Amino acid sequence: MTFTERFVALGDSFTEGVGDEDLLLPNGVRGWADRVAEQLMLADTNWGYANLAVRGKKIGQVLAEQLDAALALQPTLVSLYAGGNDILRPKVDIDELMAAYDDGVARLAASGARVLLFTGFDSAKSAVFGRTRGRTAIYNEWVREIADRHGTLLLDYWRLREFQDRRYWAEDRLHMSTAGHTLMAKRVLEVLQAEDVIAMPQLPALATLSRRAAFAADAQWVRRHLAPWVGRRLRGQSSGDSLTAKYPQLTGLHPVS
């Protein structure tokens, strides 16, 4: 099938859809980008969609492994978010990192596609990931400058204060939950000035934990999520090492209820 409008999504776990589980879908996840594509297709069946994002990828890997593949699909709309996995490393040269990012965005913009970029999330409330907040702030200023330079669209995730509600986050505290991905899809469609008929899931009551219960929940999180995450990094492994892109070629999607 020939698509006259082509949305190609690039990046890491954020765009792959980790945290929004659906075992019937490729890689077992859905995510905001799938939801955006579904809405675009509801409005216009000429849209095709590819998602090249793979969890665990750093900026260099995203640019090396996904950029040429994306351009080969001749996108009319392309989204790019990468850098979170670099920021979480013990050492990172953000200025050097963003020079490569700038070059990649320049190539995407030169293709004639509309380009959508994202700033990073404000992790101020996270006891663990909040330690990298300063790095993310510097990264964000680079993203804003690059978006201005190349005339791209920008979704300023840092300023979306509703995501400070922990109910929009998955159990691992690193990725958005189904509700979070759903809300993100709506915010992306707003930036694209596209209508949607997405129904937000009802959030559960916000639980207030006792100190003992909070300590137990933190201990469980360390065992289930933080310790394995640290272990993979010490071994030089990534959760995406055995995975490939969900939708490497343009496809049509139907909304999943």
TrEMBL record:
The keyword Transferase does not apply. The keyword Hydrolase applies. InterPro entries: GDSL_Rv0518-like, SGNH_hydro, SGNH_hydro_sf. Residues 9-182 form the SGNH hydrolase-type esterase domain. Pfam families: Lipase_GDSL_2. One of its GO terms (molecular function) is hydrolase activity. Keywords: Hydrolase. This is SGNH/GDSL hydrolase family protein. It comes from Arthrobacter hankyongi.
